[in-house]
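Handout, page 2. Input:
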Amino acid sequence: MNIADTYTGHVEPGGDAARRTLDGLTITKLSVGPMDNNAYLLVCREENEALLIDAANDPERISDLIGHGPDRPALRTVVTTHQHPDHWQALGAVAGANGANTAAHPLDAEPLPIPPDFLVEHGDTLKVGAVTLEVIHLRGHTPGSIALLYRDPNGHGHLFTGDSLFPGGVGKTSSPEDFTSLLNDVEKRIFDELPDDTWFYPGHGDDSTLGEQRPHLAEWRERGW
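Output:
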């Protein structure tokens, strides 16, 4: 698989992966499956251990992303951001092939094809090698949707939002109550807590920053989606 080292936040369905290299972590983004799902491979540069966010589809392509040589990272954990089937089609295959543990929020665990090894709640942390990720529960797209935050000590934050936050709005919800719940959580747990230079990575499509989206929060609330 070709991996581009010039990271823009855009990847094409079926195309190359794109890698962002930080001091302690590499973040590689790949579009998989018919719904242009993003899978993110996080690799601790110090310990060469990996964590995958959303084994959404195409287990063979995800395997190629991890690599096949002796220097490939050890995939320790696969995190599922939420219960919708387009985000876990390759979960069993990827976790099984790599002997990786799986993690999800308890409210979204039951529909998953394999029971999570770890259940994570708001405020919990997950490790990838020497790197720590914070779990943020965002209620509304699904009951147990989560985001993962990496606070880079030598740079800005990196936030993996699943389908709860996109450029242009929050994720799809099935009722006005769910929309209000999701937007409230996104405002209070993300925008009120994190600075504008935080880069976020959604479950589909291109990335953005909180600063780029912050001016539109009132507009999203007014339109109701």
